[in-house]
Design a protein that fits this description.
This protein is an alpha/beta fold and 378 residues long. The chain is 33% helix and 16% strand. The protein is built from 14 helices and twelve strands. A ten-stranded mixed sheet has the order 1-2-4-6-7-8-9-10-12-11. It has a two-stranded antiparallel ribbon with strand order 3-5. The longest helix is centred in the C-terminal third of the chain and has 21 residues. It is globular. About 6% of the residues have low confidence.
């Protein structure tokens, strides 16, 4: 029996299993890396077998769309206002023209923008709100064509800051050696095509539509533990002290959940994260993952651990989670009423996290290991 002879129900079932999400979405909670998402595309391969398969797969083929630009670092004299990201912008525009020509606007549910290009600037700060003429309408042009339920960016920290109109401090970037961070923004699952919010006339991604959920994966900080006085280093991150001064972010009233993923982040970075979360007026749920996942063998990689002491890594993790617990317990004015710590899925980490976990359990209701809800005292 050939594929054409199969009943429609079986072919649709095959499509269901072939319609996989790209790695940049499916592996959001793993250590981020910028690798090609285009090497494994079973649904696309299926659609190329015959006209019938193409017709049946067409509604699903572009649900998870990806635009990639793997460019090299340009000389500072060549980058101009756009910091060398014009090829990425051109790829986005080509994608949008294709969507319009093929009438696919209503098919695209998620858009991933991935780039290896690291913007080069002369100052230690990547400035916000100055994307240059060539990139000035990047987000408005995207939202004028498609209505994505999620936007994902995988890029080096400086590029991520540039694309999101944030400011990061690059002074200690050399010590962290972070090659990729991932940010995903999602609108509420209750929003349909009919009531999709009208995009704002702004090129600030955080403000263009009312985002409900944010996932930020900042990757590994293990390299910084090789430096003298590592605890004084400032991580390159869109969650910087400058972000806290940006009054426009106080308009993020729609954000109700935030997931933060990192590997051995410094406790100072967690303090900055909490300061940001506490100014979000309607944030209800926070999810954390601060240790490498069980399948991650980073601690066995001598080239990455180098001179880092394992005791420093675990001590910083214990301190960071305890500080989270202290802040959530004692700052009762904040709107956060639920905390999930994925690290509790690893039994080996229970003792390390016990100080913070015990404090949470004393003041909040324990739903299960690593999951707490604030006790309603009203």
């Amino acid at each position: 029996m050939c594929l054409d002879d199969l009943p429609l129900e079986l072919i649709l079932l095959i499509l269901f299993y072939l319609d996989i999400r790209p790695a940049s979405i499916a592996k959001l909670y793993e250590e981020p890396s910028i690798t090609s998402d285009l090497t494994h595309q079973p649904l696309k391969n299926f659609s190329q077998t015959c006209s019938r398969c193409r017709s049946l797969s067409s509604p699903y083929l572009f649900r998870y769309s990806t635009v990639q630009y793997h460019g090299s670092v340009l000389q500072r004299s060549d980058v101009g206002e756009s910091h060398g990201l014009v090829p990425l912008y051109t790829k986005v525009q080509d994608f949008l023209q294709f969507v319009i020509k093929q009438d696919l606007s209503h098919r695209v549910q998620s858009l991933v923008i991935s780039t290896t290009h690291d913007v080069e600037v002369d100052t230690p700060l990547v400035l916000a709100g100055h994307p240059g003429r060539e990139l000035g309408d990047l987000w408005t042009s995207i939202f004028s064509v498609v209505q994505p339920y999620a936007i994902t960016i995988s890029a080096p920290p400086s590029t991520l800051a540039f694309l999101t109109s944030c400011v990061i401090d690059r002074s200690d970037e050399w010590a962290f050696k972070m090659h990729c961070q991932t940010l995903q923004l999602q609108i509420s699952a209750s929003i349909s095509r009919i009531n999709y919010p009208k995009p704002q006339q702004t090129n600030k991604l955080f403000q263009i539509v009312p985002w409900a959920h944010c996932i930020l994966n900042e990757g590994s900080s293990i390299q910084v533990y090789n430096t003298y006085q590592y605890d004084a280093m400032v991580q390159p991150s869109v969650l910087s002290k400058f972000l806290l001064r940006d009054a426009t972010l106080r308009l993020l009233t729609s954000l109700c959940s935030f997931d933060y993923v990192a590997i051995f982040p410094l406790s100072g970075q967690l303090d900055t994260l909490l300061s940001f979360l506490f100014i979000l007026p309607n944030l209800q749920r926070v999810t954390m993952q601060l240790a490498p996942q069980k399948q991650n063998r980073i601690l066995e990689d001598a080239s990455r651990v180098q001179r880092s002491l394992h005791s420093d890594l675990w001590m910083e993790l214990e301190t960071a989670f305890f500080l989270i617990a202290v802040d959530l317990v004692h700052k009762s004015y904040c709107s956060i009423n639920e905390l999930i710590c994925y690290d509790y899925q690893q039994e080996a980490l229970w003792e390390t996290l016990s100080r913070g976990g015990n404090l949470m359990s004393q003041h909040w209701q324990t739903i299960e290991n690593g999951h707490w809800k604030r006790i309603d005292t009203s």
